[in-house]
Each structure stands twice: as structure tokens, then as C-alpha cells.
Structure prediction request, 197 residues.
Amino acid sequence: MFEVAVIEDPAAAAVLLDPMRARLLAELADPGSATMLAARVGLARQKVNYHLRELERHGLVQLVEERRRGNVTERLLHATAESYVISPVVLAAVEPDPSRSPDRLSARWLLALAARLVRDVGALVTGAAQAGKRVATFALDGEVRFASAADRAAFAEELASAVTALVSKYHDESAEGGRAHRVVVAVHPGVKSNTKG
Prediction:
């Protein structure tokens, strides 16, 4: 089971976005059958079977075991990942493009960058999983509380200068066998979590 699976197929994304199918998928963190799930979600076994077949058809669940019980074969299924991310590739015709209007102070441009990040890293993760390899990445996540808008602006300028200096120091266009890496740094207001801990 993957920790995170990236959905790049529009049909699989549509299947995943159905609330009942998403619930069944969550229930299948541990192997289960249509009969077991029907009792948990309050649907008829036949209806659960229908949803499970759609999830299986799109690679979101997989068969773990078949058990014979009298005249019935019970199929145990398991989710293929712990969680799922839908790549912007699913909406390729309307996918955000950060090159359209680059503006480092625009929240919409930040969203376009984030969408590209999900798309690119998703493709890398999918390719690496198929090759049985890992992807070399690095990320930072933190929080800073600014006393004023002026402090926030000063921080942004210092951060931009520091990242520009690092990129200038380590970027080598002529490095034989070198591999380009994308650097994305974002600062945005924090969002209060709706989850209860």
C-alpha cells in the first residue's frame, strides 16, 4: 500500500469524488468485504458491491483474498493507498499555468504554483513507484507570526534575497550529468484547522 497515491485519470478522480465511494475507500484501510462494509455504512450489500467494483476498476482498491463460504465467494479488498491526491492533470484543459501572469504577491499565482507542484511531484512519485525508486525531495514547513505588515514585507525581501543567493551559488548550467531542481517557497496567512484534536 502506498502512503499517498496520485490520481491523474479523470475517470478515477470522478469515482473518488463520490462521497459514498470515498467513505468505502476510507473503510478499506483494513481489508474488508462488501458484506462487512454494508453493515458499517448502512447500504445493501449489492449496492456496496457496485461501488467496490468501480473503485477496483480504477485501481483504488485491490483484491487481497477470496474466501469460499458455502455457495458464496467473499472477496476481501484493500485500499491501494492510505490517502489520495488528485493531480491538476485531471483538469488539463483548465489547469492553472503560473507562467500566464507571474506575480509573487498574488494569491492566485501562488495557487497556480501549488497546482504545478502537485502535478510535477505527483508525476515523479508515480514514476518512482513504478520504477521501485525514491524521489529526492526536500521541504520545509513552518510558521512565523509577524508584528506588522512592514515586518512581513521585510521578511519576504530577506527571504527572496537569501534564496536568490543560494540559487546563484549552487546553480551550474554546465554541470555534466546535473539535474535541474525546482525551488518553490511560499508565504501565506495561516488557516485555522476545522479538525478537533
User: Anything to note?
Assistant: The first helix runs from residue 10 to 17. Residues 171 and 177 are 13 Å apart (CA to CA). The mean pLDDT is 89. Helices lie at 10-17, 19-27, 34-41, 45-57, 107-131, 149-170.
